[in-house]
């Protein structure tokens, strides 16, 4: 009987001391099921540490471990897509390199997937992240619910499994600024969650900075939704109505002779508020236009510098 192949894609950044432990646990869990085999694709997102040498060593030791090294730091989302492009398994897992993913739950997610779902996320009963990362995840979740229409009962995490046809559909997006949640829900709404435990980080801290989180949020806003532009139109309409009503009030007061000299402070405050809102909305429109320009110029989603293990 032919074994079912599971592909694991792990983006690697500053994880030279943790990635081997993560890989070893994946292998030990998969080997408990005789009907399954595995391949592990490790993507070096131009990490400044020695993780690429660790990946090459593991690939030499085990032909089922393969490595992809990117020419520069393209970000986690692009690195995952670079790994997806190399997968051949019927089931494709994504997980982080920090050891927080509950790898022992692999077959629970597969069992849920086999119930007829296309994608299954791990839903954590308790999130083991610092306050900053929890806040970032909360904003990303609310943004995804609003802009992409993700159901409130679905929790998006970095540990999930998808069927191969979903991965192929996601790979059709070849522009920069990918947003994985948007790509998933653009391909299917047949998504479920499995509640499991979240582990503490084995070493170091999250690579997501404020700048990277803002970039990820903007990718979600601008690449998969026009709702921010619709909100801009709505806000503009509200202020136009307020201005029109205020103008009518001024005219009536002028006719009745009850108008008084306007205060400069109130006028300046009003101008600053309206001007600030206009600049924010112009910046949002500029972000859309700038990203369209970059996509038209065929900016790469990622560039593969080196691979290891695929020739075997």
Automatic annotation (TrEMBL):
Report if keyword Transferase is assigned: yes
Q: Which InterPro entries match?
A: Glyco_trans_2-like (IPR001173), Glycosyltransferase_2 (IPR050256), Nucleotide-diphossugar_trans (IPR029044)
Annotated GO CC locations:
plasma membrane
Gene Ontology molecular function terms on file? undecaprenyl-phosphate 4-deoxy-4-formamido-L-arabinose transferase activity
Question: Transmembrane stretches, by residue range?
Answer: 231-252, 264-285
Q: Which UniProt keywords apply?
A: Cell membrane, Glycosyltransferase, Lipopolysaccharide biosynthesis, Membrane, Transferase, Transmembrane, Transmembrane helix
The record's annotation in Pfam families points to:
Glycos_transf_2 (PF00535)
The Glycosyltransferase 2-like domain extends over 7-169
Q: Which GO terms of type biological process are on file?
A: lipopolysaccharide biosynthetic process
DNA repair keyword on record: no
Coiled-coil intervals: none
So which domain of life are we looking at? Bacteria
The identity of this protein, by name, is Undecaprenyl-phosphate 4-deoxy-4-formamido-L-arabinose transferase
């Amino acid at each position: 009987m032919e074994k079912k192949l599971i592909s694991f894609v792990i983006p690697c950044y500053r994880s030279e001391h943790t990635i081997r432990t993560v890989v070893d646990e994946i292998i030990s869990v998969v080997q408990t099921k005789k009907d399954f085999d595995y391949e592990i694709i490790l993507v070096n997102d131009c990490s400044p540490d020695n993780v690429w040498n660790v990946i090459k060593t593991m690939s030499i030791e085990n032909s089922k471990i393969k490595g992809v090294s990117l020419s520069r730091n393209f970000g986690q989302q692009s690195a995952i897509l670079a790994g997806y492009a190399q997968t051949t398994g019927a089931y494709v897992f994504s997980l982080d390199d920090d050891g927080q993913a509950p790898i022992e739950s692999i077959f629970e997610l597969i069992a849920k997937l086999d119930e007829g779902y296309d994608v299954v996320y791990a839903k954590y009963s308790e999130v083991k992240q610092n306050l900053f990362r929890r806040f970032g995840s909360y904003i990303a979740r609310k943004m995804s619910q609003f802009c992409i229409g993700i159901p409130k009962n679905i929790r998006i995490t970095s540990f999930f499994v998808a069927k191969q046809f979903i991965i192929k559909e996601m790979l059709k997006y070849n522009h920069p600024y990918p947003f994985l949640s948007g790509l998933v829900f653009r391909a299917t709404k047949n998504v479920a969650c499995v509640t499991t435990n979240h582990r503490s980080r084995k070493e170091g801290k999250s690579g997501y900075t404020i700048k990277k989180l803002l970039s990820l949020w903007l990718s979600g806003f601008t690449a998969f939704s026009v709702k921010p532009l619709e909100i801009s139109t709505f806000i503009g309409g509200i202020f136009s109505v307020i201005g029109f009503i205020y103008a009518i009030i001024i005219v009536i007061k002028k006719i009745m002779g009850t108008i008084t000299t306007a205060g400069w402070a109130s006028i300046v405050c009003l101008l600053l508020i309206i001007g600030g809102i206009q600049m924010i909305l112009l910046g949002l429109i500029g972000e859309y236009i700038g990203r369209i320009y970059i996509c038209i110029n065929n900016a790469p989603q990622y560039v593969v510098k080196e691979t290891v293990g695929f020739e075997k």
